[in-house]
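Usage example:
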Amino acid sequence: MDRPVDIKKRLRSVNDIRQLTRAMELVSAAKMRRSKLQHDLVYPFFSLCAESMLEIQRYSAEIDNAFFRLREKKEGQTWRIGYFILTGDQGLAGAYNNNVVRTTEEHIREKILDNEAKGLQTDYTLYVFGNIGRDKLISDGYRVDPDFSFPITEPTYYEAREVANIIRRKYSAGEFDLVYLIYTKTDSAISMKPIISRVVPVNTKGLSAFLPEGLTDAGIALEKGAVIEYEPDANAVFSFLIDTYLNAVIYGALVEAYSSEQTARMTAMDHATQNADEMLKQLRLRGNRARQSLITTELTEIINGARSVQSID
Amino acid sequence: MSEDKKAKTMMLEIVTPYRHFYEGPVESVVLSSLNGSVGILPGHAPMVIALIPGITKITMDGQTRHAVLTDGFAEIGQHLLLILCDSANWPEEIDVRRASDAYLRAKERADALPRQSEEKKYSENSMKRALERMNIVRLHGTAHQKSTLRKLDGDTTSE
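Running the assembly step on the lines above writes:
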C-alpha cells in the first residue's frame, strides 16, 4: 500500500518538473517567434539572389565558373567532401539532433559505397555546428574537424559570411570537391525533416526549388531576349554573385535550423508538460485513495478497540 | 536634358538579408562598382554590376539621399533596378563608435597577416566597409555623429 507521505513527495517533484518543462516551452516559443521573423526577412533576399543567378546564367552561356562545374574524377582518385552539419547546442528537443546525426551518417555511408562501386575513394570531413551533434558524431567515430566551432544560437549574417569564406577558400584550394549542407527544415509545426543540399558546385536545378511557385522562369528584372552588359566583366560579376549567394545560402540554413530547433524543443516540452499533467492526475488519485484507506483502517482499529473494551466490561 | 526625360523615373529595390531597405521610384542612382562610380538613369541598358562597399546616391524629386551599401550586385532591367547587398544603411543609422572600432580591429588584423593571403583580403574588406561607414557620417551624418567621429579621430591620431 502507498503511503500518503511518499505520494506527496512524488507529487511535489513531478510538479517541479512540470514547471520546468512549461517554462522551457514558453522560452522556446518566444525564441521561435523571433527566429521565424528573421527567417521571413531573409527569404526575399535569398530567393531574389537565387532568381538572379538563374536569370544571369540563362542569358550568358559563356560563363565558366569553377563554382558551377562539377569536377570529374577518374578511377582510383578521391572525392573530397566537406559536410557542414547544423545541430543544436542543447538537447531536450525531441528527435531533432538525432535525426540530423542519423541523416548525416546515412549519407556518408551511401556516398562511400556509391564511390567504391565506381572505383573511387572518398575522403570527408565534418564541420559541425552545435555541441550535441559534434559530440555524438565524434563518439560514433566520424572524422570531425575539431577546430571548427560556431554557435548556432541567434545566427548572424556576419557568422554566415565567415563560414562561406571557409567554404570558398577550401573549395578554390581543392580541399573540397563537393560541399553539402545538412540542416533541418520546418514545413509546419508538426512536420520537420533534415535535408541535404549541395552548396558547391552550385546545383542549378536545385536552385529553382528555392523560388516561390510559378517563379521558375523568373524574369523579374529582365525581359526575354535582352543583351546584358557586365561591369567590369561577366566573370568578375559572377564571382560577386557567387559570394553573395553562398553567404545567403549559409545564413538561410542557419536561420532555418535555429528556428527548427526551437520549434522541436517547443513541441517536445509541450508533450513533456502534458505527460506531467497526466502523471499528476494519477498521483492525486492514488494519494486520495491512500489517504482514504488510511482513515478507514484507523477507524476500523478505533471501533474494534472500543468494541473489545466494551466486551471486557 | 529635356523636360519629359526629367520626369521619367524607374523602380529601385534594395534588399539585404535583414530588411527590405528601399522600394520606390527614383530619378537617378549612383553606385560604387568595382571600377568606380556608375550613374544610372531611367532607360539604362540591361546590365549587371558588381558592387563594392561605398556610398550610393539616390535622387528623387530633386532631393538626394545618401546610403552606404556593402558588397553585392545590382541588376538593371527594363522594369527594375534590383540591388542585393550584404548591408545597407542611412547615415543616421550608423553607430560611429562601432564603425571606428571595427576599422581599428580590422586594420590591426590586416597588418599582422602576410601580404597576398586570402585572410588579408577579408580583413581589408572589413576595413573598407568600416571606412565607408565613417565616410558617409563625415559627409552626411548628423552634427552629433560628426562630433563623435571627430573625437574618435582625435583619439586615434594622438595614439
